[in-house]
Each structure stands twice: as structure tokens, then as C-alpha cells.
Amino acid sequence: MIVAQQGVRFQKLTVEQCAAIHDASCRLLETVGVETHHERARELLAAAGASLEGVRVRVPRRLVDWALAVTPKSFTLHTRSGEPVMRVGGTNVFFGNGSETPNVLDHRTGERRHGTLADVAEGVRVLDALPNIDFVMSLVVPWELEPAVAYLEQFKAMLGNSTKPFLFLSPSGDDVRAMVAMLEAVAGGEAALREKPRGLCYINVTHPFRHEFDDLDKLIFLAEKGVPYTYNPTALRGASGPITAAGCMAVGNAGELFGLVLAQLVNEGCPATLSGGTADKLDMRSMIDIYSAPENRVGFTEMARFYDVPHFGLGGASDSKTVDEQAAAEASLSLLVEALAGSNLIHDVGYMESGMSNSLAQIVICDEIIGWVRRFMEPVVVDEETLALDLIERVAPLGDYLGEDHTLEHFHEDWYPGLFDQSNYDRWKKAGSLRLSEKAARRVDELLASHQVPDLPPDVVAQIDALIAARDLRSIHP
Length: 478
Fold this sequence. Notes:
about 15% strand, alpha/beta, TIM Barrel
């Protein structure tokens, strides 16, 4: 069942400001252009009317306008077995974790250590169990594996431990091709996957004005296949973009609109999400990319809404080094404002220390926070039943409502936490005086002990193993 999230909406940028940023991005594409290190990409753009100067491509505004007009306003992601569950677009808001952190904060020991394949498998199973996590990413890099197969083994672990929609990525174009082939095996073929996408591919581009071969090659491949994607050129304020928010947004947005034009030239109408380019704060004291800064928030969400194109956002991450008060505060603030702004896919839930670590305990806490946010965003119903005038006139002024049928019928509509403690002091003390981080760590173990995911069919596992073996052989004998 597809869930639609409606309710409160926050807006920071005016329509006029969004239009000014868009105009600036289009001007940059026409005057500065983009270094395009992919011959076929240059050929497609040139044939459509872009100008070439070596590897630099300058894109006319009319191509941007055309690409925005033909990009779908929404698309649907499906479970592993093909049920539609996420209508990405409009006012719908969905939440998921992040991927590829080098480290994990072990919920059992508190140790910060390198990630393993077992961490991916366990973590994805926990994500599958959490009610407010809608899609799954890979969490950590499995350091014990050979690089040639690490991402594919990681993706196999994801496919085997969750039935939710998958968001996947790899620096390698060959890996992405194999991952899509794995999804085709799960779906029952290329046509079946095109009809019912099980996932979305995240392409993380390192510079808004310099697009390398692998990133462009992945984009072209995904567009041809009709697999949803997000193409995200990173712009760090003060480094690869201006320090000012507006200037950095114009730069990042230009890089992403370039990718949108190319994808639509490859396959008009292919599904896409915009993130506007990550315009993160670069801490000038430490040169660290700050994930939770208030300046990072909602601007690109509003640009995507301005374009009426689905948005890939970021929330629930913290720059704290441990699961503490800072982590809870930063996750809560970012999840709330991104949801209120209407970001369709909010990823990186559970990220710690500027994307260097993942924490299952923090993800469990964020799942609780998301539950609060979702309840807050639900619209207030005002009708004869909820106004309850007949009841009030009968009970008021001195009666109470505890024994009334109306109370019994509606009290369950309130939000009741499963992790946050709302009991009195004595009950909290009797239960062990546990801190939130301690309760979250215990909850992780409970989910691992109780939650089971249906196995993939043996023939699908065999196809996936064959793809991994073929990738391993190619790396040995190129």
C-alpha cells in the first residue's frame, strides 16, 4: 500500500528567489559550461544544440527547460516482491538510512571500528524491521572483502535481508550494471524491473563543473534502463562553490540540471530525483564537511518543488562522535525541517561524525523521532465527530471524558512512543534507569533476535552469485 504524507508545509525560499537561483544556474551552464569526460555524452548534447569546446560543454537554457518539462513528476518504488509502497513525488515523504561509511559504532561494545559484511547484513535486517524506515541503503563498507567484489557482496546482503525498496551505489560503472542485473533477477527480468522499479541508484558526483567518465557512464546506463536515479554533484561552500548559500546553490543546481538534460536526451521521460547538488557547510576551522548545519537545510528541497520534480534529501545525520544528546538534537532538527519542507526521499538517517560512521542504535532512535514527525505532520481533522459538541454539552461543565465511548474510540490516534520513556520517575528507576542510548542498543538486539526476512528464491541467489563471480574474474583478468 502506498502511503501519502500530507499536512504542514514549511517554505524558506520565495518563488522569486527560486526563480533567481534557477536563472543563475542556467546562465552558468551557458557561460561556464561543464567539463564532460565522456564522448557519447558530448555527442548527445552537441546533437541537441549544446556547444563544445574540447571537453567543455555549454548547455542552452532551452534544453534545461525541455528536460524539466519531460521529467516525470513522480514514480513508484516497489518492494522486493513487487508491491507498490513508495510514490516518490508530490507531498510524500519517505525516510531511509545512508551508505558507505568506513566505520560502525558497535551497539554491543560501543567500539568504533571498520565495517564488515556482517554489519551490512545485520543492519539491513534491523532496518527492515523498523516501522518508520521506508527504504534501505548499505550502511558501511565491508573492509574485509576484496574491492572488486565488495560492493556486489554488500548489495547481495541488502537483497537477502530486506524486502523494502533499495537505494544503491558504487564508484564503479561495472558494479552498477551488475547491481541492476541483480535487481532484474529479483524482479523477473528487465521488463519487469522497468515496470516495477525495486530501487534507485545514487550517483555522487565530485564537482558541479567537472563530470568524470564513470559518473556519466552510470547516468547514461540507468537512463537507458529506466532505473530511477539521483545525480548529485557535490558543492562544498567555500571550496567547490561560493561560501554564500545562494551562490553555492546556483553552482550545485547547475551541475544537477546538466545531468538531468543528459539523462532525458538518452531516454525521454526516464524517472529522476533532484537534490540540487549537496551544498554543505565546510567548517573553516577544521575543513570537515558538516552534515547537520542549519545552512544546509531545505533550499534544494524547495528548488525541486519549484521544478515539480521528486527530491532526494538528507536528514537524521549528526556530526557527534557518539550516540548522545548532540546526536539526538541534530537528528531531530534535521528530520523535522526536511520533512516539513517536503523532501521526498530523506536519506542518511543514522549517520554520525560527518558521514564517517553509522550507528544502529542511532537509527533506532531516529525511527522513533520519525514516528513523532509523521504524527505531527498529519492534518488536524475538524468535523462533527472530532468537535464532539453533543458529548461536551452532555458532560460539561464538571464531568470527565475518561469513561466515554468517544475517548475509547479515539485515544489510540495519539502517538505513543516505543522507545522514549514517558513513565514517572519511580517506574523509570525500577526499570533500570536506562539512558536512551542504552535502550536503543537493547532494541537493536531484540530486533535481530526476532525479525526474520523471507529468503530469496534459490535460482535468484544463483544468478546473483554468478554476477559476483563474473565481476571477480574480470578484475583478475581484465
